[in-house]
Amino acid sequence: MLFSNVIITSIALNTARRIVYFPLWWYSIGFKKRLSELFHGIRTLFHNLGIIIMFKYLFKPMFGERSRSGRIISFFMRLLLLFWRLFLFLILTGVRVVLVLLWIILLPFAVWQIFSLLF
Fold first, then answer.
1. What does each of the 119 residues of the chain score in pLDDT, given as a tens digit?
2. Rounded CA gap, 19 and 13, in Å?
3. Residue 28 three-state SS
4. Using CB atoms within 10 A of its CB, is residue 46 exposed (0-12), middle (13-18) or buried (19+)?
5. Distance CA 112, CA 68 (A)
C-alpha cells in the first residue's frame, strides 16, 4: 500500500511539474527553436532561389549570345526571372513569419478555449 502511494504521488507531482513547465518551455526554448528555424529557413530559401546569382548574372548574355538583340532579350528575361523569384521569396517568407506569429498566439488561444468550454 505504501509503495502504490509513492508511485501515485510521484506520477501526480511529475504531471503537475510538466503542466507548469509547459508554458515556460513554449515561450522560451520552443520559441527560440521556432525563431532559429525561421532564420535558417529564410537563408535556405534565399540560397535555393538563387537570388544572388540572378543579381550577379543580370547583365550577362544568355547562351553566349553577343548580339545587341540577344543582350536586350537576355536582360529582360533575367529581370523577369529575378522579379518572380523575389516575389516567391517575399511570399514564402511571409508565410514563415505568420507561422511564428501563430506559435505565439496558439497557447493563449488554446487555454482560453479550454476555459470557455469548462465554464
1. 577 888 999 999 999 999 999 999 999 999 999 999 999 999 999 999 999 999 999 988 888 888 999 899 999 999 999 999 999 999 999 999 999 999 999 999 999 999 999 88
2. 10
3. coil
4. middle
5. 65
Give the three cell numbers for residue 72. Answer: 536586350
pLDDT at 85: 97
First to last CA, the chain: 37
* Per-residue 3-state assignment (H helix, E strand, C coil) for 34-102: HHHHHHHHHHHHHHHHCHHHHHHCCCCCHHHCCCHHHHHHHHHHHHHHHHHHHHHHHHHHHHHHHHHHH
